[in-house]
Design goal:
The complex is a heterodimer of chains A (211) and B (296). Chain A has one domain: Tgt2/MlaC (Nuclear Transport Factor 2, Chain: A), CATH 3.10.450. Chain A is 49% helix and 19% strand. In chain A, helix 3 packs across helix 4 and helix 4 crosses helix 5. Chain A is globular and about 45 Å long. About 7% of the residues of chain A have low confidence. Chain B is globular, with a radius of gyration of 21 Å. Chain B has a two-stranded antiparallel sheet. A two-stranded antiparallel ribbon of chain B has the order 3-4. Chain B has 14 helices and four strands. By secondary structure, chain B is mainly alpha-helical. Classes of the chains: A alpha+beta (211), B mainly alpha (296). Chains A and B meet through helix 4, strand 2, strand 5 and helix 5 of A and strand 1, helix 4, helix 5, helix 12 and helix 13 of B.
Chain lengths: 211, 296
C-alpha cells in the first residue's frame, strides 16, 4: 500500500542532516555539506535537547523546541533559493503574478515546505549520508547523495543548485527520481486550471494553517 | 528454463495488448473538470464554468504517453542539468501521465487512505511493537530474496546480463550465508545491489508508455502497462507455484504487506502532510519514480 518511493520517509531534510565522508568535493557539495553540518550541530546540541519529560521542564521544553526550530529554519533559509523554487513550481503562471502576489506565494510555499522539513528534523534518527558525486555546468550543478537508513535501505537523493554571486543555492530536491518542484508543479497546475490562481492561494493558506 | 519460456511467451502476448491499449490511450480524451468540495476531492460535480476552460486551454492537462519513454541516451547524460530556458516551458512539455479514470481513481484513493488509517496502520504498528525491527528487516529480506526470479528474468529481458549475474549471485549468497535469505550478506559483504527490475520497466524500456494511471484499491498506484507487468511477474513468483490455495496466497501477501508497512510508517503521512492535493501528488510521484526506474 505504501510503495518505496513515498518520499522515502525522508522528504528532503533528513538528507541535509548528514555525516559526510567524501574528502574531495567541489563547491556545490561543500555548500550542501556546510549546511548539513550546521543542522547536525543544532540537532545534537545538548543545550537544545528536547527530551524533558519532567512536568517542570515542560515549559522549557517548549522554548527549546522553538529555539531549535528557529535555528534550523535559519540554516535552511541560507541554503535554499525559495524564489527560484517558487518560480519553477508556478512555471508559466509565475509571469502573470504581480510583485505582491509573488511575495505572498514565496512566503506561503516556504511555510508549507518548512512544516515538512521541521518534522523530518524532529524524526531524525542517525541516518547516514554518503556524498556520491556532483556535476557542474556553468551556474548550475547537481549534487548526488545516498541516504542510508537504519532499516538497511538506500535512498538516492539529488540536489539541484544554482550559483548566485559566490555561493550555491538549492532549488530542487529529487528523491528516488521524484522531483519536489515537478511534483508541486503538477499539483499547482491542476489546481490553477480548475480553480484559478485564487483557488490555489486559498488552499495554500488553509493548508499552512492546519496541522 | 521453464520460467523463461513461459515468460517470453507471456511478454509477447502482453506486448500486443499493451500496444493496443497505448494507441487507444493516445486518442484525444475529452476532459471534464470537476468541482472540488472542501479539502476532499471525492464528490465530483461537473461545474459548467470549468468546462469553458477546456476551450481556452485544451491541452494543459493532457498527457503525452510514449513520448517520455523515447528519451535519448544523450539526453539522459545531460538531463541532470537544467536549462534556464526550461522555465519558459509550457505544461504541455511536462511529463504527465494520462488519467481518464480520475473520478474513479479518486474513489479508490480515498478507500486506500481509509484502509491504511483504519486497518493497515494500526495492525502494522501493533505488529511492530511485538516483533523487533531487526527481525522485520530480516523478514523483508526473506521475501525479497524469494522474488529473485522476477528481477533476474527481467534483467535478461532488458539485455542486462551483468544484472542477471548479480541477481543469481545474490540469491546464492543470501540463501546460504544469509540463512535462507533472512540476512543480506550479498550487499553487506560483497556490495552487490539488488537489481530492482520488473516487467513494467521492461515494457517501458521497449518503448511502451504507461498508457494511463490506475489507482487500484489495496494495491495502490499503477498504470495499464505496470498492471500487466505485475500480472506477468506474478507467474515468476515462487509463491505462485509453491502455494496452492488462493486464501493462503492472500494471507502470505497480506502478512508481507503488514511487515513492509511496519518498516515505513509515517511515509504516507508525510506525503499527505506535504501535499496540497495528495491524490495528484501520489500520482505524479508514482509516474516520476517509474520513469526514473526505466531510465536507470
Amino acid at each position: 500500500m505504501a510503495p518505496k518511493f513515498f518520499w522515502a520517509g525522508t522528504f528532503f531534510f533528513v538528507s541535509i542532516i548528514a555525516v559526510s565522508t567524501l574528502s574531495q568535493a567541489g563547491e556545490p557539495t561543500e555548500s550542501i555539506r556546510k549546511t548539513a553540518d550546521r543542522i547536525i550541530a543544532i540537532v545534537s546540541d545538548p543545550e537544545l535537547q528536547t527530551s524533558g519529560k519532567d512536568v517542570d521542564e515542560k515549559k522549557s521544553h517548549k522554548d527549546k523546541l522553538k529555539k531549535r526550530n528557529r535555528l534550523v529554519r535559519e540554516a535552511v533559509d541560507e541554503r535554499f533559493d525559495w524564489e527560484e523554487m517558487s518560480r519553477r513550481t508556478l512555471a508559466r503562471y509565475w509571469r502573470d503574478r504581480t510583485d505582491d502576489e509573488k511575495k505572498e506565494f514565496i512566503d506561503l510555499f516556504g511555510k508549507l515546505l518548512e512544516r515538512t522539513y521541521l518534522d523530518q528534523v524532529e524524526g531524525y534518527s542517525g541516518e547516514k549520508v554518503l556524498y556520491v558525486g556532483e556535476t557542474v555546468d556553468g551556474d548550475y550543478s547537481v549534487v548526488r547523495v545516498k541516504i542510508i537508513t537504519k532499516k538497511e535501505t538506500e535512498i538516492p537523493v539529488k540536489y539541484r543548485l544554482k550559483k548566485k554571486g559566490n555561493d550555491w543555492f538549492v532549488y530542487d530536491v529529487i528523491i528516488e527520481g521524484v522531483s519536489l518542484v515537478n511534483n508541486y508543479r503538477t499539483q499547482f497546475n491542476t489546481i490553477i486550471v480548475r480553480y484559478k490562481y485564487k483557488g490555489l492561494i486559498k488552499r495554500l493558506r488553509a493548508k499552512v494553517k492546519t496541522d | 528454463m521453464g520460467f523463461l519460456n513461459r515468460m517470453l511467451l507471456f511478454s509477447i502476448c502482453t506486448l500486443g495488448i499493451t500496444a493496443a491499449l497505448v494507441s487507444a490511450a493516445e486518442m484525444p480524451i475529452s476532459h471534464l473538470y470537476f468541482q472540488q468540495e472542501g479539502e476532499d476531492f471525492l464528490v465530483p460535480d461537473v461545474a459548467l464554468h470549468d468546462l469553458e476552460e477546456v476551450v481556452e486551454k485544451p491541452n494543459t492537462n493532457q498527457s503525452v504517453p510514449l513520448k517520455s519513454c523515447k528519451k535519448e541516451v544523450s539526453e539522459e547524460a545531460t538531463g541532470d542539468l537544467d536549462d534556464p530556458l526550461e522555465l519558459e516551458m509550457d505544461m504541455q512539455d511536462m511529463d504527465l501521465i494520462a488519467d481518464p479514470l480520475e473520478p474513479l481513481n479518486r474513489v479508490f484513493f480515498h478507500f486506500n487512505d481509509k484502509l491504511y488509517f483504519w486497518f493497515l496502520k494500526p495492525i502494522s504498528t501493533g505488529y511492530g511493537k511485538v516483533v523487533p525491527e531487526v527481525l522485520r528487516v530480516s523478514i523483508r529480506n526473506f521475501f525479497e530474496n524469494l522474488s529473485m526470479p522476477i528481477r533476474a528474468v527481467n534483467c535478461i529481458l532488458q539485455g542486462d546480463i551483468k544484472g542477471f549475474g548479480t541477481e543469481l549471485s545474490r540469491f546464492v549468497v543470501n540463501s546460504t550465508l544469509g540463512v535462507a535469505g533472512f540476512g543480506n550478506p550479498a550487499k553487506q559483504l560483497f556490495g552487490m545491489d539488488m537489481q530492482d527490475e520488473d516487467l513494467g520497466q521492461t515494457f517501458g524500456l521497449y518503448g511502451l508508455g504507461p498508457a494511463f494511471y490506475i489507482n487500484w484499491p489495496v494495491l495502490g498506484p499503477s498504470s495499464v502497462r505496470d498492471t500487466i507487468g505485475l500480472v506477468g511477474d506474478s507467474f515468476l513468483s515462487p509463491m505462485y507455484y509453491a502455494v496452492d490455495a488462493t486464501k493462503y496466497k492472500i494471507a502470505i501477501k497480506g502478512y508481507e504487506m503488514v511487515n513492509r508497512t511496519s518498516l515505513k510508517i509515517g511515509d504516507y503521512e508525510s506525503l499527505k502532510k506535504a501535499a496540497l492535493d495528495p491524490y495528484i501528488s501520489l500520482r505524479d510521484a508514482y509516474h516520476q519514480h517509474r520513469q526514473h526506474k526505466i531510465k536507470e
